[in-house]
């Protein structure tokens, strides 16, 4: 008698995502608005479990990124090689982000998402905008004055800088640092195990998050913004399945369709959680076991990408600029579009990989071209749906970059990539 094949975690997560959509739409369509539906079910039980799962993942982000980058830079060992890997990775991330924002601006100007928008039919939410930071201060903030405070506050660029500094020096010390190197290595293993333990609850968390989103919005709430969503999705699809796959094929000669097939479960998980950081361990595991990418490379490039590679966010910002400009009747000049490209590319660096953070950096982009920040309120209600899609694009870009860098450094096992698993 044949044993039944047990469903894998990624399959279970995907099933939970679909069930969450169905449940959310059912809640919105068949239960009347009131205390039971809105307070007890949607903003009570579903929000409690879903947010609890996200907080559990966020709890591990800082120690996971820190230990992973220390171990990644130690594993690469050679400072010159580490420098080359770092330069290739950062260049890839910056170039693809600039391409992403350019693509979104071109598509938005072609499809005009904000044209003929009836502003009176949409309630503008009051938006609190944090003060923008200058370029000089942004660069200086990379070097932490107190690394322990950076770890406590979750200041990702400062954490990355300190982790790489520690890892490079530990690698250079050789046997002298063996005990401390083992501590970081074991700490990294512990973080991975803790993440996998929390991931066992992922199907429940994903179900609740998706059910809450669709239970709150339904169909009617997103109808006025449907064109905006469609334009963003078109740009995201072009970036994910066009730009990235061209880069992958040109630099590695690997089959893009096989890559998408194998990495799709991670994309689905990123879509459901809307947080790049939560996908770090799953991305590293999938890249190693299904795509043949060495963990030495992925443990360096994936956490780095979760912080500085925000192509999906850049796409949203490009479409939002055109959308709000058209909605408010503001004419943008060519120099304004160039400013948006530069500002959005810089704003993506250091953006935390957590849900909704794109709306914060969007204020910086609006400010750079003189758009009213109140316009952000137009898209706040539907940002969750767009956020999920752009997160999936972000982590796909991280994975493509990692695969290219691994191939260039002879750390890609093509046999594993070609296997059907």
TrEMBL record:
The keyword Zinc does not apply. The keyword GTP-binding does not apply. GO terms for molecular function: symporter activity. InterPro entries: Na-dicarboxylate_symporter, Na:dicarbo_symporter_sf. It is found in: Cell membrane. Coiled coil: none annotated. Keywords: Cell membrane, Membrane, Symport, Transmembrane, Transmembrane helix, Transport. It is a multi-pass membrane protein. GO terms for cellular component: plasma membrane. The chain crosses the membrane at residues 12-36, 56-76, 88-111, 154-173, 194-214, 226-251, 263-284, 304-325, 337-358, 364-382. GO terms for biological process: dicarboxylic acid transport. This is Dicarboxylate/amino acid:cation symporter. The lineage of its organism: Bacteria, Bacillati, Bacillota, Clostridia, Eubacteriales.
